[in-house]
Specification:
single chain, alpha/beta, four-stranded mixed beta sheet, 9 helices, 9 strands, 16% strand
Length: 300
C-alpha cells in the first residue's frame, strides 16, 4: 500500500476528498465497486442515526470494519469515550451556510463545502455500544433488484436485445442484452442500473446537463456523465444487497481513465457522487429530506 496522501488545507475540501479517491484507485480499490455491509446497510452516524449519502457513503464504505457506525471526535467524547491514540479518521463532507456580497454589494447566503473527520466505533474506547437489532431481509438481492426496477415510475422503455447496452435520449429507451448473456446476475443488474441512471438525466426528469448537452465520446462532459451513471449504479446495487465484488473487474485502462479525469478536475468526484445519489433516489422513488446541490447536506 502506498502511504496516505497529505491533506490539503482545510479550505480545499475538493482536493482532500479527491486525493482519498485517487489513493484508493492507485492501491487497486475502486470505491464504487465496494459492497457495503449488507446486514446493516450504508454507513451511518451512531449518534444522530444519519445515513451518509453521496461521496461520504463511498468514502466510508471503503473502510473494512465490521460495523458501519461512525462518530466525530467530539461526539465520542460526549458519549464518554475517546478515540484510541494513533487511529486515523476519514473525512466526510457537508455544507455550512455563509454570507458574501454580490457584485452589487448586496449580502446573500452561500453554501460552503467543508469536511470533518469521523471514526468507526471500533476505533473508540470507553463507550458501551447499543447497536440496533439487525433487520431481517425478506428478499434475495436479485428480488430486491427487481423491486428497484419496478419502483422507477415513468421510467424509460427497456428493450432486452443486442450486445451493446445503451440509453437513447431521442426515444427514451434503454437497451441491454438478455440476462443470460452476462457472466453473473450482478453484472446484468449493474449494467441495467447504469443505463437507467443515464435516463434520469432526460429533460423531463432531472434535466442533467451532462446528458442533455451534446457531448462527444471521450469529452469531459461525456466522462462526467459516465461517472454519474457508475456511481448511481453502485448506490442501487448496494441498496439491493448485490455483491459488487463479483462483477467483472474494470480493465487497467478503465481505472487509468478515471484517475486522469479526477486529476484534471478535483470537483468531479463530489459533484458526480451527488448527481449519482439524485439519480438513484429518483429510480427508487425516494424524496430526500435535504437538497443535495454539489454535495450532500449533512450536519452532525
Amino acid at each position: 500500500m502506498k502511504s496516505a496522501a497529505t491533506f490539503a488545507p482545510h479550505s480545499d475540501v475538493y482536493e482532500v476528498i479527491t486525493n482519498r479517491i485517487i489513493l484508493a484507485l492507485e492501491n487497486g480499490v475502486t470505491p464504487w465497486k465496494v459492497s457495503w455491509n449488507t446486514a446493516h446497510g450504508a454507513p451511518r452516524n451512531y449518534k444522530s442515526k444519519h445515513v451518509y449519502q453521496g461521496i461520504n457513503a463511498f468514502l466510508l464504505g471503503m473502510q473494512q470494519y465490521e460495523q458501519p457506525y461512525y462518530l466525530t471526535f467530539n461526539q465520542a467524547c460526549e458519549l464518554g469515550g475517546c478515540v484510541r491514540k494513533g487511529e486515523k479518521g476519514m473525512p466526510v463532507v457537508f455544507y455550512k451556510t455563509g454570507k458574501k456580497e454580490d457584485a452589487q454589494g448586496k449580502e446573500k447566503k452561500v453554501a460552503i463545502l467543508q469536511y470533518s473527520t469521523v471514526f468507526n466505533i471500533a476505533q473508540i474506547d470507553g463507550v458501551e455500544w447499543k447497536l440496533p437489532e439487525l433487520p431481517s431481509r425478506e428478499h434475495t438481492p436479485q428480488e430486491a433488484a427487481e423491486q428497484i426496477l419496478a419502483s422507477y415510475t415513468n421510467g424509460p422503455r427497456i428493450v432486452y436485445a443486442g450486445s451493446e447496452p445503451h440509453y437513447r435520449t431521442s426515444t427514451d429507451t434503454v437497451t441491454v442484452p438478455e440476462a443470460s448473456d452476462f457472466h453473473t446476475a450482478e453484472d446484468f443488474y449493474l449494467t441495467l442500473f447504469h443505463e437507467l441512471a443515464h435516463s434520469t438525466g432526460h429533460s423531463k426528469r432531472l434535466n442533467r446537463a451532462t446528458l442533455t448537452e451534446k457531448a462527444a465520446f471521450g469529452s469531459e462532459t461525456y466522462a462526467k456523465e459516465e461517472l454519474v451513471a457508475e456511481l448511481a449504479a453502485a448506490f442501487l446495487g448496494n441498496a439491493a444487497g448485490l455483491d459488487l465484488a463479483s462483477t467483472t473487474a474494470g480493465s487497467a485502462s478503465y481505472v487509468a481513465s478515471w484517475l486522469q479525469a479526477l486529476r484534471n478536475d478535483k470537483r468531479l468526484i463530489i459533484s458526480a457522487a451527488s448527481q449519482g445519489q439524485k439519480a438513484a433516489n429518483l429510480i427508487r422513488g425516494i424524496v430526500p429530506s435535504y437538497e443535495a446541490g454539489e454535495a450532500e447536506v449533512h450536519t452532525e
